[in-house]
């Protein structure tokens, strides 16, 4: 089944179950859609997928869209919101967790706008937060990494300690091989390529041969270096097998671009609910990407069976 159709079938009840609208209430009109991004849209990862989601909305719903890059403060958010209002935009996506706080603070001042953030926590009658539960995707990535290492030492180069996929990565690796060493380095920034590559150079000297660059502003550059050194990587946010099938064992993929389109459809239908909503493999918005030919068939089948079981019953292999 096409992923977008699957998303609609799975997520439509979630957005409608607390609808409780009276028959007299008028449905909102989707006049335009705005997108706020912390950095830029050309990171080949998280931000690029958000921008692609905006383009999907423009194409499928034939509605005006606009975006602002490098929005990093409350002042920036208010300024961009006012500019969007001048364009009759009434659905605004903040593409990251920092927007949850800003949207919650200003939402009462903009009752005609519905705000949508990601991976944060919100309150307000016209604010929705969509959170990817990324622990499991990290867990399966850790399983692949532990099964693929020749040095018995793998590493994640991450942006921030709060990322749930990091704990998942470590636990998945240990489940696959209790003797594997797992190192995690924190760049403390999504886009600091220089620091991420410095960490890679340090870790390479330690003999680490499998890397999980969990930062959407530096992941591509790290994978390119991993490929140059003849080592292995696990892609992040998008399917990055195109960076090198012999290098990228698999990828942890978040289908945020398709979720964007669904959310806009729900808003247009009057079914988009405020509050905090979580999504995972079972919702069709997280998956693993293509497997490298370097991954043995039996390992690929074991991982796929574990994912299927997790989708069915919500149980990870270490919980069985």
Described by strand count, sense and barrel closure, the largest sheet is: 6 strands, parallel
For the record, give the distance between the C-alpha atoms at the N and C termini, rounded to a whole number. Answer: 29 Å
* CATH homologous superfamily caption of the largest domain: Response regulator
The number of E-state strands comes to 12
> Structurally, how many domains make up the residues?
2
Main sheet strand line-up: 2-1-3-4-5-11
What is the CATH-assigned architecture of the largest domain? 3-Layer(aba) Sandwich
On the 0 to 100 scale, the average pLDDT is: 91
What does this structure look like?
Its main location: membrane. It is a lipid-anchor. 47% of the residues are buried. The longest helix is centred in the last third of the chain and has 17 residues, at 297-313. This protein is an alpha/beta fold and 320 residues long. The strands form 2 sheets. The chain has a 6-stranded parallel sheet, with helices on both faces. It has a 6-stranded mixed sheet with strand order 7-6-8-9-10-12, sandwiched between helices. It folds into 2 domains: 3-132 and 256-283, Rossmann fold (3-Layer(aba) Sandwich); 135-254 and 290-319, Rossmann fold (3-Layer(aba) Sandwich). The model is unreliable at 17-25 (pLDDT under 50). The chain is 41% helix and 20% strand. Strand 6 (153-158), helix 6 and strand 7 form a beta-alpha-beta unit.
């Amino acid at each position: 089944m096409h992923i977008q159709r699957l998303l609609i079938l799975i997520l439509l009840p979630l957005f409608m179950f607390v609808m409780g609208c009276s028959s007299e209430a008028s449905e909102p009109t989707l006049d335009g859609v705005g997108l706020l991004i912390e950095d830029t849209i050309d990171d080949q990862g998280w931000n690029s997928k958000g921008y692609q989601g905006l383009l999907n909305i423009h194409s499928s719903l034939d509605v005006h869209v606009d975006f602002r890059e490098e929005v990093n403060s409350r002042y920036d958010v208010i300024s961009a919101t006012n500019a969007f209002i001048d364009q009759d935009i009434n659905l605004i996506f903040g593409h990251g967790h920092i927007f949850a706080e800003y949207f919650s603070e200003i939402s009462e001042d903009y009752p005609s706008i519905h705000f949508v953030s990601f991976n944060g926590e919100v309150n307000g009658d016209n604010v929705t937060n969509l959170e990817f539960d990324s622990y499991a995707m990290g867990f399966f990535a850790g399983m692949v990494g532990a099964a693929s290492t020749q040095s018995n030492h793998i590493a994640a180069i991450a942006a921030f300690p709060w990322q749930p996929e990091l704990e998942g990565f470590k636990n998945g690796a240990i489940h696959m091989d209790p003797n594997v060493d797992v190192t995690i380095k924190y760049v403390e920034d999504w886009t600091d390529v220089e620091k991420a590559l410095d960490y890679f150079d340090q870790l390479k000297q330690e003999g680490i041969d499998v890397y999980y660059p969990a930062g959407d502003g530096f992941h591509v550059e790290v994978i390119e270096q991993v490929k140059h050194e003849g080592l292995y990587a696990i892609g992040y946010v998008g399917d990055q097998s195109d960076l090198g099938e012999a290098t990228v064992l698999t990828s942890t993929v978040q289908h945020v671009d398709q979720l964007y389109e669904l959310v806009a459809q729900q808003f247009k239908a009057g079914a988009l609910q405020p509050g905090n909503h979580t999504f995972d493999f079972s919702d069709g918005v997280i998956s693993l990407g293509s497997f490298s030919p370097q991954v043995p068939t039996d390992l690929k089948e074991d991982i796929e069976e574990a994912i299927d079981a997790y989708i069915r019953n919500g149980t990870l292999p270490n919980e069985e």
